[in-house]
Specification:
heterodimer; A: two-stranded antiparallel sheet; 78% helix; globular; B: alpha/beta; four-stranded antiparallel β-sheet
Chain lengths: 304, 243
């Protein structure tokens, strides 16, 4: 039971990151590599604030706020300085590595024995004994709140404009939209979510580490494509639900393969292969359909 | 209303591929005028559109809109008074957004993109009314994704979107050349109808001389960035009888 809950709660916390990446990767159509840097940035800022006695909830929010600056920088590099999307993300991510060490003063910072958001329910006897349940509950609350906010936001005039920018940028410019601004805004929202995820991850694992972001983009991508394979609805709300579900599912898959005896150091390879397969499925399906129709066509021609 | 003065544009300056498109180009288009533009490839038709819409900036010269200098306005600022329809029907609409969301983007062209809801009941009625005017049976399919429509349908909606908030000038860049003959006629008729209803200046590029003379009120022929003939009323009638 405990393992079930802890797997779920880990999925829920990483879902925040996956939702952040969904905004850039799927909505804006922008492969944003900043995410790994802003996740660590969120973790570092939160860890420093908490070790200095700040309120954990405020620390998470501050981390989110500062994380958006990472998106601002990537957006600036891309839209104003005309650097390729993927490269501007990598540049910011690399720069953040040094920044994060500067923030923490060293490569990692322990949160052992410190106040965290997961200790909010400490006064309730049940949660005091089962920290995992408390992480689970916080994960549920955070994910539902984000679900609600993002769903509402992407239905506003501004939100629709961001979606349209990712869909057809030239058309948006012809419709009088400052697409540079819209892209930067979307990147800021996305990286803010990544930083919040980083802050939550650091608190749940009990430390912030300068390498905590490595490989997380692939995890988030895997979560997104698993979610899309599970729920194929067009409704925006359900697409976000799919992302969360995908993230939880990913954790269960990982739990399963580790129990089968997979070496933990092989996990990145496994995740990358899984994401590649799921990402290529639509293309493969198309090729199969086409070759089947081709065979049909050839038969048809022969029969004439 | 639209005044182009001494416009110059050269591509690949100071290289072997240097190509001067416009040299001291002048053109004035009045309000309510519908100008059709013909000319061979490389004559500068599309470059002219791009310079007016701001997706290209001229080397020298001035562009005025209602006596206001817009030469260095960025593309998105000009779009507030310029409606555009591209040659490619896929370029004018967002495929993953619904018809309603696409139309609401066009309707909000001049207003703030704020946190108010994009969908409102009042707009819905307005969109239905506008869609019923173009006779494509789309008025009850507002929740359909744009990407599921045919090229002709998408181009019709692009045209509707370009003129939804009465632009001062409408730019049509070979907007029917990617369509089948039937859709082409439909879009051309729609173009005539929309431009008649609204009092704006229109520039239309076409390769079809007959359409160029049948539609609109003035026909310009471009060659090497120069206006080689500029036909108005009687001259157009005379040219038409020669076809």
């Amino acid at each position: 039971m405990n393992i079930l809950v802890s797997t779920c709660s880990q999925g829920l916390i990483y879902a925040v990151l996956a939702m952040g990446l969904y905004i850039t990767f799927r909505i804006l159509n922008f492969a944003d590599m900043t995410a790994e840097g802003s996740l660590t940035l969120g973790g570092s800022i939160c860890a420093v604030l908490i070790t200095n006695g700040a309120n954990p909830v405020l620390s998470v929010l501050t981390a989110g706020l500062i994380g958006s600056l990472a998106g601002l920088i990537t957006g600036f590099l891309h839209t104003k300085l005309k650097i390729q999307a993927i490269l501007s993300g990598i540049l910011t991510m690399i720069a953040l590595y040094s920044v994060n060490i500067k923030i923490m003063g060293k490569a990692n910072l322990s949160l052992l024995g410190k106040e965290t958001v997961f200790k909010i329910f400490e006064n309730v006897p049940f949660f005091k004994e089962n920290l995992q349940f408390s992480i689970f509950l916080i994960g549920i609350i955070t994910c539902s709140a984000l679900l609600l906010i993002l769903n509402l936001f992407f239905k506003t005039r501004l939100g629709i404009a961001i979606r349209a920018t990712g869909d057809n940028e030239q058309m948006m410019r012809a419709q009088g939209a400052n697409t540079d601004f819209l892209k930067i805004l979307a990147l800021m929202i996305s990286n803010s979510l990544c930083a919040v995820a980083g802050a939550l991850i650091a608190q749940s694992q009990g430390y912030a580490d300068v390498n905590m972001g490595t490989g997380t983009i692939v995890i988030a991508l895997a979560s997104i494509v698993i979610g899309e394979a599970l729920i194929k609805e067009n409704l925006f709300l359900l697409k976000l639900v799919a992302v969360i579900l995908g993230s939880v599912c990913y954790r269960f898959i990982i739990f399963f393969v580790l129990n089968l005896g997979m070496n933990p150091s092989d996990l990145n390879l496994f995740t990358a292969v899984m994401a590649s397969i799921l990402l290529s499925l639509p293309g493969i399906r198309k090729t199969i359909v086409r070759s089947v129709t081709n065979v049909g066509n050839q038969k048809f021609v022969q029969n004439i | 209303m639209l005044e182009i003065k001494n416009l110059c544009k050269t591509f690949n300056k100071n290289s072997i591929d240097e190509k001067t498109i416009f040299k001291n180009f002048n053109l004035t288009v009045e309000k309510g005028e519908f100008v059709t533009i013909i000319g061979g490839n490389g004559a500068g038709k599309s470059t002219l559109m791009n310079l007016i819409s701001g997706s290209m900036i001229s080397d020298s010269g001035k562009i005025f809109m209602d006596d206001k200098d817009i030469t260095f306005f960025p593309e998105h600022k000009r779009a507030k008074f310029i409606g555009r329809v591209f040659q490619d029907p896929l370029k004018g609409t967002a495929p993953n957004l619904t018809i309603e969301e696409n139309l609401s983007l066009a309707l909000l062209r001049n207003s703030k993109r704020n946190l108010l809801f994009g969908k409102t009941k009042r707009n819905l009625e307005f969109f239905k009314e506008k869609l019923s005017e173009i006779n494509l049976d789309l008025e009850n399919r507002l929740d359909t994704k744009m990407g599921l429509l045919s090229g002709g349908q998408r181009q019709a909606i692009t045209l509707l979107m370009a003129t939804l908030i009465n632009p001062k000038i409408l730019l049509l860049d070979e907007h029917t050349s990617a369509l089948d003959p039937k859709s082409r006629d439909k879009i051309l008729n729609l173009t005539g109808k929309i431009t008649n209803d609204k009092n704006m200046a229109t520039l239309m590029i076409t390769h079809n001389v007959e359409n160029a003379l049948r539609l609109g009120s003035r026909t310009i022929k471009l060659e090497n960035g120069q206006i080689v003939s500029d036909l108005k009323k009687e001259e157009r009638e005379a040219a038409k009888s020669l076809l």
